[in-house]
Amino acid sequence: MQPEDGPQAETTLLRARDDVWLLDRPAGPTTVVLAGSRGKYLRVPVKAWEFLQELSGAPAGMTVPEARRRHPGLRLAWLAEHGLVDLVPAQGLRSPTALTLALWRRNCVYRLRQSVGGWRDIRQAMERGPVPGGREPVCRPLFFDRVETAARLSFALPGTSRQCTVVALAVADTLRRHGYAGRVAVLGEHDQVFLHAVARVGPHVLDPGMSLPQLREFAPPDPRRGA
User: Fold this and answer.
1) Count of domains observed in the chain
2) What does pTM read for this prediction?
3) pLDDT by residue (tens digit) across 14-39?
4) Angle at Cα 58 formed by Cα 162 and Cα 37, nearest 5°?
5) 114, 216: one domain
């Protein structure tokens, strides 16, 4: 699908890619960008450079209408065709069956472990933090969307739990197994009577329940705050 075509284009998301590298601020009307996954050097107008810079700072992406409004005349289809941006269609991304089954197995395991050990797994996950050396991409990879989709599909299988702590543990475990610095974060707010657990990789939040409230993350005490 091309981002300018069809009725679904209005809700298609454009997402920046971590394997696209840019030179410093160009001095002329055009500049060169590197599409790493394809090993291509491409000459693009400065307005495309500006768009790629802005898009890299939008973890959730940008809709096609927003991109058109903010960067009129930009050839979005050309950028997608040459691997400079990713497209997330309105209906979401399909998830491999193997990934869904993997999330189902891990969900069942953590559901059982939580029924026996209670809060222990969450506490240990918070203490452990992300795996050293794990990837923390600047731009949200499409793989994260597929993990969320696979987790939601796994809820239809027997033995799974939708409890946020179980889901966060299963998702973070899956991320680590694929080389990402996945970790569990517990969120809350001073005036809230409930907590919520999610998986995180750097600035990116994975919450298959799509119920992410605007809460802050619990963190260890910072002695500098009391200085």
Assistant:
1) 2
2) 0.85
3) 999 999 999 998 889 999 999 987 78
4) 90
5) yes
- Domain with 75 in it: 7-88
**CATH number of the domain encompassing residue 80:** 3.90.930
Examine residue 159 and state whether it is found in any structural domain, yes or no. Answer: yes
Residue 169 is assigned to a structural domain of this protein? yes
What are the tens digits of pLDDT across the range 32-85? Answer: 999 987 788 999 999 999 999 999 998 889 999 999 999 999 999 999 999 999
What are the φ/ψ torsions at residue 46 (nearest 5 degrees)? -60, -35
Tokens for 176, please give them: 């680590």
* pLDDT tens digits for range 211-220: 666 788 998 8
Answer whether residue 2 is part of any domain.
Answer: no
